[in-house]
Every structure is written in structure tokens, then in C-alpha cells.
Specification:
The chain is an all-alpha fold. It has 4 helices and no strands. This is DUF4351 domain-containing protein.
């Protein structure tokens, strides 16, 4: 997975959940995920309505 994809996902998640102090530790997990899982996250984040959705997904 390229660095650009990781940066884009982190940017989108920060924009969606910027008020959550717990977000940054979760973003640290992204480089450890396989590419297929990152692609799934890119699709899933569109449907997230709460920070808990991201936490449950990860």
C-alpha cells in the first residue's frame, strides 16, 4: 500500500472525526493493515455516522 493511500485515509478520517482525541492512536494502526483491509476501510468510512463505527470496524 502506498504512502499516498495511507495519507488520504488519515486525512478523510481526521476530517470526519476531528473532535475525537482517540483518533490519532487508531490512525497509527493503519500502516499495519493489509491493502485489502485499507480498501475496505475507504469504502466503509463513507457510511460511518459516529466515531464508534470506526472503532468497531477496526
Amino acid at each position: 500500500m502506498t504512502l499516498e493511500v495511507l495519507v488520504l485515509l488519515a486525512r478523510q478520517l481526521r476530517r470526519k472525526f476531528s473532535a475525537q482525541p482517540e483518533l490519532e492512536p487508531l490512525l497509527q494502526q493503519l500502516p499495519e493493515l493489509p491493502s485489502v483491509r485499507l480498501e475496505d476501510l475507504a469504502d466503509a468510512l463513507i457510511d460511518f455516522t459516529a466515531f464508534a463505527d470506526l472503532q468497531a470496524w477496526l
